[in-house]
């Protein structure tokens, strides 16, 4: 696949609105669109998802614009195959559009960004499993330092206070496992597929991470 793009109806929704207006009303309509964009820009991701749940395509456009660069970086840190990343991105945002009501109506706490990532992580696990039936697993993205790391940005937005500080101080291999299982809500098996680790290793690292967290918070 080529570069990552939102669905055509998402990307083109605002421009389509303006292109269909008669010239006499173009100025006022453009002003209205700009005002709407500014209003959406001031909302957090949770409010945007609630609007998406009501079928608000402009809110979806804004959510995609705001989250897709970060999401693509995070996926690429786990998969070097651009085709898989593009497929997962497309499937993720299609699921977000269709299932935003599940977040909007949920009584469980959590961030909109975290909810979107959980969908993407599970889609990536599914993609790995599909590929495993036909060929060798896709190459893992090369380990590299990213400052600030996508995971650390998500961590900062999701977990605060002493818990967040303790989590960020974990060894990277322990933090990734705990993050996938606790913050992303993945099972041991899903975490093993996502991180390309044996299930036994995931269990061991999760146990070590929890012990380290308890000691740090004691």
TrEMBL record:
This is RNA polymerase sigma-70 factor (ECF subfamily). It comes from the Bacteria. One of its GO terms (molecular function) is DNA binding. Gene3D superfamilies: 1.10.1740.10, Winged helix-like DNA-binding domain superfamily/Winged helix DNA-binding domain. Belongs to the sigma-70 factor family. ECF subfamily. Residues 63-132 form the RNA polymerase sigma-70 region domain. The keyword Lipid biosynthesis does not apply. It holds the Pfam family Sigma70_r4_2. InterPro entries: RNA_pol_sigma-70-like, RNA_pol_sigma-70_dom, RNA_pol_sigma70_r2, RNA_pol_sigma70_r4_t2, RNA_pol_sigma_r2, RNA_pol_sigma_r3/r4-like, WH-like_DNA-bd_sf. Residues 162-212 form the RNA polymerase sigma factor 70 region 4 type domain. The keyword DNA repair does not apply. GO terms for biological process: DNA-templated transcription initiation. Signal peptide: none annotated. Keywords: Sigma factor, Transcription, Transcription regulation.
């Amino acid at each position: 696949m080529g570069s990552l793009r939102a669905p055509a109806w998402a990307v083109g929704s605002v421009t389509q609105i303006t292109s269909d207006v008669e010239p006499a009303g173009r100025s006022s309509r453009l002003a209205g669109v700009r005002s709407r964009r500014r209003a959406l820009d001031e909302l957090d991701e949770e409010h945007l998802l609630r609007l998406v749940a009501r079928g608000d395509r402009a809110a979806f456009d804004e959510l995609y614009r705001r989250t897709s660069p970060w999401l693509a970086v995070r996926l690429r840190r786990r998969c070097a195959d651009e085709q898989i990343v593009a497929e997962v991105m497309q499937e993720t945002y299609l699921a977000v559009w269709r299932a935003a009501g599940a977040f909007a109506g949920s009584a469980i706490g959590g961030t909109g960004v975290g909810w979107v990532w959980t969908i993407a992580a599970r889609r990536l696990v599914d993609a790995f499993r599909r590929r495993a039936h036909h060929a060798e697993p896709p190459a893992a993205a090369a380990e590299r330092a990213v400052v600030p790391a996508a995971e650390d940005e998500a961590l900062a937005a999701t977990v605060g206070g002493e818990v967040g500080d303790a989590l960020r101080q974990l060894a990277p291999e322990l933090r990734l496992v705990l993050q996938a299982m606790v913050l992303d809500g993945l099972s041991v098996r899903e975490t093993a597929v996502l991180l390309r680790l044996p299930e036994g290793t995931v269990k061991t690292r999760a146990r070590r991470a929890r012990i380290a967290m308890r000691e740090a918070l004691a």
